[in-house]
Write a structure and sequence with these properties.
The structure holds 2 protein chains of 2 kinds. By secondary structure, chain A is an all-alpha fold. In chain B, 71% of the residues lie in helices and 5% in strands. In chain B, strand 3 and strand 4 form a beta hairpin. Chain B is globular and about 60 Å long. Chain B starts with a helix and ends with a helix. Classes of the chains: A mainly alpha, B mainly alpha.
Chain lengths: 495, 465
């Protein structure tokens, strides 16, 4: 069997999921962390090799995993690697690896560590799936590990309900939307009605699958936390803490399905609809930035930062301009890394100081200067600190959007400005001011240092040498913009 | 490329790289290994800034000898997508060179001064780290060949400024004042970022050399006209008002005096406060196309000058008096730029920066020096009571005195009509959000769940390791 005939993607996803399930049943937190670290580290290496092979050799536009499957119609490869997902594999693995390494001991039970690996497997499955059924399952599986427990404090039960209504609601809507597409394709006698490449080649849009696109778009908007479906993000952050939210947010599953499914299958309708999605996301960006000003605790401030900055990814995708789309996709990577690092820094503060109310914090800089430096650098990197990848992403995004929609461009700049202020505000309230720290508070532990410094180094490295990230994202953006331009031209010609 | 040209290019690059490498060295040592000694930090800072200054002199000499008006250093595209590319180009010309020399000389001198001033201070290393970050950012700002690159330097100057205002971070006031300055910077930076994109759009280039051609600074013509020129100019003026503390956004400047005196000297006497003026001088060809914006700039500058000299007279401490004096001079400089007197403005900036930095550095020992002078002279050396305001009618004087004491009430007005409504809106929406999430479980109270014994958890983990 040659290297290329091995089912690398299926194997990695399956092994990660199995490892997650096994580790989740263990009893020792330390050995769970070690084992999960090895699994996530291996996934990172495999992802890096896959990305290097995909972009470095330019060997193929798409490499299909040999395992084929059909739940309806003719069998097709379940997973494949292409220019869109190849960069996302090592990215999502690094995020999970950092969380496994640095999460505080109290948040690192075997169940939680196992859940992080299951989330990684689900993210990889979503990124690599070319079958609509598998994609829906991956979307659902990606949500289950973070589902809050039904036992515990009333506030936690409330959050569980919020989670069920919003996120599992989004899963139901997406599944129904994709099912409507498959049914319409099956009725049109397609041989593989669940296969994404077949549906795209067939041009499923002309079948007008009733209600499919609105359902898919609402699911995306909910999962992205765009206005008015954003409330689950600060609630989740406050009850579960910033790290689970960062894990849930980093893959940007909503934006991914938009690019992978909605635009290729419904290009004509998306030309008309993307501006609406973008406007909804823009409201969330501004709303999150304003609400961040009122946040009185670290967790809620982080939740609003996630709402605001993550929405900018969708805003960038609406501009139909290569710069803006590339900016949005670069922002996807940069905020994924930066917000995860910021979440870990907040978790480290909470592990040392307990309640995360800003009124009770302050003066931590005297005891934990290293943590303070990581906190401010990673926080500012999430809002476009010059020298980091965030600056590159925001520069591209603002240029692209301002060229097409000046008003929206100004709104993005205002939202980012307010978020920057919020980050510095919570940094100052946590680390500066009169010292309220207990004498026993320690600076970062070596494992925390490795994860925080690693994420900061990645952001700085890609900030100074953004070529690899921007080139890979730019290539995808170029194809996306061309596809949308073609659809727009066809629409104009049709009218 | 011939040898002199090559040499000028290398020297120009070294000007920027020297403090940047020193910053990276100090940051890496502080985070990754044993922090260096005070002596090593001062030595490295002095060497880096002396190298930058000497390279600046070298470039000046080379340009004078070879009759070169400007040196452009192309590092190539930082990144590019589609038709958009972010070029890294340094521009050294008759405008940037004086700023390069001022930045490296004043920062170097302040670095040397601070070795004694902050000796054994808990934040000694942090101060030098931020000073080197500021020097790198300021040099990037003044040597940027494009408005995009200038923005990167501009942002870093703002961050280093806010962190240095909050330098004495054990007390609440400096921290709050640093945040206030940062908030004003962020709001006004919106103007610069939007202007940068509009310049790119209308001039088809973000590079100054391409966007404003037909002669080097102080010449140059912008290919932007009409409404676009007016809009871009107003946005640039707005950006400059924040960084240069002009009315009504200048309230942060006296509050910034909470920072250590050496940083007050270099930021608000010498360099940072002139960044707005530099921006307007660099983009003067656009301003020239928009007489209305130029008139607005003159108005703002003159009003600020009058306001600051009035308010400065009622201040009771030396640093605040100097802050308002600096604000007044920068107001006059902006008015000169609005009137098209670019060279005069540049000379004014150089003189003002040098004098004001010296005054700030001497401020802590001012009383002592006055006492020494008076003792040596055998009485008061300077007459008091003969001020220009005595020429005004008594009723006016009282009225103006009251306004001056309240610092024009600009801060109060901004607080009441801009900041307070925004925060009230945020709090109201936050209450609604909490109530909405509460619907899912009426008994729920969404407050953070305290961790049982977090300190013990961390300590036990350290112990286990």
């Amino acid at each position: 069997m040659s290297t290329f005939s091995m089912p690398w993607i299926s194997l990695t996803i399956a092994m990660t999921a199995i490892a997650g399930a096994l580790i989740g049943r263990g009893s020792s937190p330390d050995s769970a962390r070690r084992s999960a670290g090895i699994v996530a580290g291996s996934a990172t290496l495999i992802g890096l090799v896959a990305a290097a092979w995909m972009y470095g050799t330019g060997a193929a536009e798409r490499w299909s995993d040999p395992i084929v499957f059909a739940w309806i119609g003719e069998a097709r490869p379940i997973f494949a690697l292409d220019a869109l997902n190849a960069a996302l594999l090592p990215f999502s693995a690094v995020v999970v690896l950092a969380v496994i390494i640095a999460a505080p001991r109290a948040q690192c039970s075997p169940e939680r560590v196992g859940a992080a690996l299951l989330q990684l497997a689900a993210s990889w499955a979503l990124f690599c799936a070319f079958d609509l059924g598998v994609m829906a399952i991956a979307w659902i599986l990606g949500l289950l590990p973070a589902l809050p427990s039904g036992r515990g404090a009333p506030a936690l039960r409330s959050t569980r309900r919020v989670y069920l209504v919003y996120l599992l609601g989004s899963a139901a809507l997406l599944t129904l939307g994709l099912l409507l597409v498959v049914v319409a394709a099956a009725r049109a006698d397609m041989v593989a009605p669940a296969s994404l490449p077949d549906l795209e080649a067939f041009g499923v849009e002309r079948l007008h699958p009733w209600g499919a696109l609105p359902l898919i778009l609402v699911a995306i908007v909910i999962r992205k936390g765009a206005f008015p479906f954003h409330s689950w993000i600060p609630a989740l952050s406050q009850q579960l803490g910033p790290t689970p939210l960062a894990l849930l947010n980093a893959p940007q599953a909503g934006a991914f399905v938009l690019i992978r499914v909605a635009i290729p299958l419904f290009p004509g309708a998306m030309v008309e609809t993307l501006p609406i999605v973008g406007r909804v996301a823009l409201v969330a960006a501004l709303y999150g930035a304003v609400l961040g000003l009122a946040a009185r605790d670290l967790r809620r401030a982080f939740g609003w930062l996630v709402v605001s900055q993550s929405s900018l990814v969708l805003v960038g995708l609406e501009c139909l301009d290569v710069d803006g789309i590339a900016g949005a996709m670069t922002l996807w990577i940069s905020i994924g890394l930066a917000l995860t690092g910021f979440a870990l820094a907040i978790a480290a503060v909470e592990a040392r100081r307990g309640p995360s109310s800003l009124d009770r914090l302050g003066g931590l800089d005297a005891r934990a200067p290293w943590l303070g430096a990581a906190f401010v650098v990673l926080g500012l990197a999430s809002v476009g600190l010059p020298g980091t990848l965030g600056f590159v992403a925001e520069d591209l995004l603002v240029h692209g959007v301002l060229e097409s929609y000046p008003g929206i461009g100004v709104a993005i700049v205002l939202a980012t400005a307010a978020n920057g202020y919020n980050v510095l505000r919570i940094y100052a309230r946590t680390f500066h001011g009169p010292s309220r720290a207990a004498a026993a508070v320690a600076d970062v532990l070596p494992r925390e240092r490795v994860a925080l410094a690693g994420l900061a180094a990645l952001l700085l490295l890609f900030g100074l040498v953004p070529g690899p990230v921007v080139a890979t994202r730019g290539g995808v953006a170029q194809r996306l913009a061309e596809r949308l331009a073609e659809a727009a031209a066809r629409g104009d010609a049709g009218r | 490329m011939n040898l002199p040209s090559n040499l000028l290019t290398v020297l120009s690059a070294v000007i920027l790289l020297a403090p940047l490498l020193a910053f990276i060295w100090l940051g890496a040592r502080m985070l990754l290994s044993t922090p260096p000694s005070e002596r090593a930090i001062v030595r490295v800072t002095s060497v880096a800034l002396t190298v930058a200054f000497l390279c600046g002199l070298g470039v000046l000499g080379g340009m004078a000898v070879h009759g070169v008006d400007q040196v452009l250093v192309h590092f190539g595209a930082w990144f590019s997508v589609g038709s958009y590319g972010f070029e890294i180009t340094l521009l050294v010309d008759r405008l940037s060179l004086p700023f390069v020399l001022l930045t490296s000389a004043l920062t170097g001198l302040v670095g040397r001064f601070s070795a004694s001033y902050l000796h054994r201070d808990a934040g000694f290393r942090r101060f030098y780290l931020l000073l080197l970050l500021f020097a790198s950012a300021m040099l990037l700002l003044v040597m940027a060949g494009s408005i995009d690159l200038l923005f990167a330097g501009w942002e870093l100057v703002g961050i280093s400024s806010a962190l240095l205002i909050a330098f004495f971070n054990r007390r609440a006031e400096p921290v709050a004042n640093g945040l206030r300055a940062f908030a004003v910077y962020r709001v006004c930076d919106v103007g610069l970022l939007v202007a940068a994109v509009l310049i790119h759009h209308h001039a088809h280039s973000a590079e100054f050399d391409a966007a404003f051609d037909h002669g080097h600074w102080p010449g140059g013509l912008a290919h932007i006209h009409g409404g676009a020129a007016l809009l871009i100019s107003l946005l640039l003026v707005f950006a400059a008002m924040g960084k240069s503390a002009q009315v009504p956004f200048g309230g942060w400047l006296p509050r910034a005096m909470e920072g250590p005196t050496p940083s007050s000297a270099i930021f608000y006497g010498g360099l940072s406060i002139h960044a707005g003026a530099y921006l307007l001088l660099r983009t003067a060809p656009v301003l020239e196309r928009a007489p209305v914006a130029a008139a607005v700039l003159v108005g703002i500058g003159l009003v600020t000058a009058a306001y600051a000299s009035m308010v400065g007279r009622v201040q009771t401490d030396a640093k605040n008096q100097l802050a308002y004096a600096a604000m007044a001079q920068v107001g006059l400089i902006l008015a000169e730029i609005g009137l098209g007197l670019r060279l005069l403005a540049l000379v004014h900036i150089a003189g003002h920066a040098a004098v004001r930095t010296l005054q700030f550095l001497r401020a802590p020992s001012l009383l002592h020096e006055f006492h020494q002078m008076d003792a040596a002279a055998g009485g008061h050396t300077s007459p008091t009571g003969a001020y220009y305001e005595m020429l005004l009618p008594a009723r006016w004087r009282l009225w103006l005195y009251s306004i001056a004491l309240q610092r024009g009430a600009f801060d109060i007005l901004l607080e009441r009509f801009a900041v307070a409504p925004l925060f009230a809106l945020a709090r109201g929406l936050d209450r609604l959000e909490r109530r909405f999430v509460g619907f899912f479980e009426p008994a729920a109270t969404p407050t953070p769940e305290p961790i049982a014994d977090p300190v013990a958890a961390v300590v036990s983990e350290k112990g286990e390791r």
